[in-house]
């Protein structure tokens, strides 16, 4: 197989799509997110050889939102192991990421850890162990990128918390089914702060190398996760990581990925590299519109995907 020319690919994808900046709709259901400049567009690719390639606003930090769910899940799985799967499923939801309907039907057990209800269960696991659970997520992220832990934006966390009625409804419903152990307010506070962590495309691409490198620390060497767990996490990303559009995303892009309503998407090409794209305008499913197009161009131009 031809080696990937990541530098050229990143440059080309960015140049091809630059004229389309501003497409999509910036998330405004969290008021503090609505103020982000819709013209931002960054791409970063981190190779397993340790080299980093980027274009556009790749160094600008943004609100990682649901991308945090991946790293919180890693911590919860390290704590609970397989027992976690009794409290949260591993199937695509087929409904919106913040839907309540399915949760009622399925007795308070969320379909997967990447929809909001599933992420709340994951945060509940972290709350039981850590006094300040989002600190554990921040510490993991800092460890992965060999930097001080990234910070969260308190104003974004507060803004989400003040408007978290739907997440609160889900949390209370799960509590009523006995699937939440800590107090609902504690879980919601921790969830909102975790979503408000800020990182750049370069930092996220580097952190996601953990999954491209089958569980080794992004700098190589130290094993942080068993290879089998990295495989399973990639499978979950592929089937559940991009909201209710995971099927279409797999069809178009063909990479395990996790998106967030801040407009970021991390994607993993196992054995080769990890990518992160950021453009705040979202499509109807809540995935970055330009970010999805960029990843689609990347796999088309490179001829590489997991398929
Ligand atoms: N904090 C957001 C929420 O709970 C995260 C959503 C997302 O990025 O998918 O609504």
Write the layout of secondary structure elements.
Layout: H1 6-17, E1 25-26, E2 42-47, E3 52-56, E4 62-63, H2 68-80, H3 101-105, H4 116-129, H5 133-144, H6 154-162, H7 165-176, H8 184-195, E5 198-199, H9 201-212, H10 227-240, H11 246-252, E6 257-259, E7 264-269, E8 273-278, E9 281-282, H12 289-302
Bound molecules: glutamic acid.
Glutamic acid (GLU) binds at residues 65-66, 97-98, 116, 160, 167, 195, 260-261, 286.
Strand order of the largest sheet: 3-2-8-7-6
Poorly predicted parts: none
Mean pLDDT: 95
Helix-strand pattern: HEEEEHHHHHHHEHHHEEEEH
Can you summarize the main beta sheet?
5 strands, antiparallel
Distance between the termini: 14 Å
Structure commentary:
It is a single chain. This protein is of the alpha+beta class. It is 44% helix and 11% strand. It has 12 helices and 9 strands. It has helices spanning 6-17, 68-80, 101-105, 116-129, 133-144, 154-162, 165-176, 184-195, 201-212, 227-240, 246-252, 289-302, and strands at 25-26, 42-47, 52-56, 62-63, 198-199, 257-259, 264-269, 273-278, 281-282. The chain has a 5-stranded antiparallel β-sheet. The protein has a two-stranded antiparallel ribbon with strand order 1-9. It has a two-stranded antiparallel ribbon with strand order 4-5. A hairpin with a 3-residue loop joins β7 and β8. α4 (116-129) packs across α7. The longest helix has 14 residues, at 116-129. The mean pLDDT is 95. It binds glutamic acid. Glutamic acid binds next to loops.
């Amino acid at each position: 197989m031809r080696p990937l020319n990541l530098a050229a690919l990143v440059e080309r994808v960015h140049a091809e799509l630059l004229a389309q900046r501003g497409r999509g709709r910036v998330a405004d259901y969290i008021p503090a997110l609505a103020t982000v400049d819709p013209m931002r567009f960054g791409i970063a690719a981190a190779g397993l050889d340790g080299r980093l390639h980027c274009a556009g606003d790749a160094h600008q930090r943004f609100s990682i939102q649901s991308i945090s769910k991946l790293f919180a899940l890693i911590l919860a799985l390290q704590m609970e192991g397989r027992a976690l799967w009794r409290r949260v499923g591993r199937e695509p939801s087929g409904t919106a990421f913040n839907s309540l309907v399915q949760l009622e039907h399925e007795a308070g057990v969320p379909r997967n850890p990447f929809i909001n209800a599933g992420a709340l269960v994951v945060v509940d696991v972290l709350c039981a162990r850590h006094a300040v659970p989002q600190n554990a997520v921040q510490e993991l992220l800092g460890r992965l990128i060999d930097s001080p832990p990234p910070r969260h934006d308190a104003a974004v966390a507060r803004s989400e918390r003040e408007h978290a009625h739907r997440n609160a409804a889900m949390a209370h419903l799960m509590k009523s089914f006995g699937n939440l152990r800590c107090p609902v307010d504690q879980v919601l506070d921790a969830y909102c702060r975790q979503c408000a962590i800020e990182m750049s495309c370069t930092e996220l691409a580097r952190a996601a190398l953990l999954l491209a490198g089958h569980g080794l620390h992004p700098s190589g060497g130290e094993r942080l996760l068993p290879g089998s767990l990295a495989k399973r996490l990639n499978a979950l990303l592929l089937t559940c990581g991009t909201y209710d559009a995971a099927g279409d995303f797999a069809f178009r892009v063909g990479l395990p990925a996790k998106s967030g309503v801040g407009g970021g998407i991390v994607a993993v090409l196992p054995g080769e590299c990890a990518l992160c794209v950021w453009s705040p305008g979202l499509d109807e499913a809540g995935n970055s519109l330009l970010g999805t197009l960029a990843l689609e161009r990347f796999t088309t131009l490179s001829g590489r995907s997991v398929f």
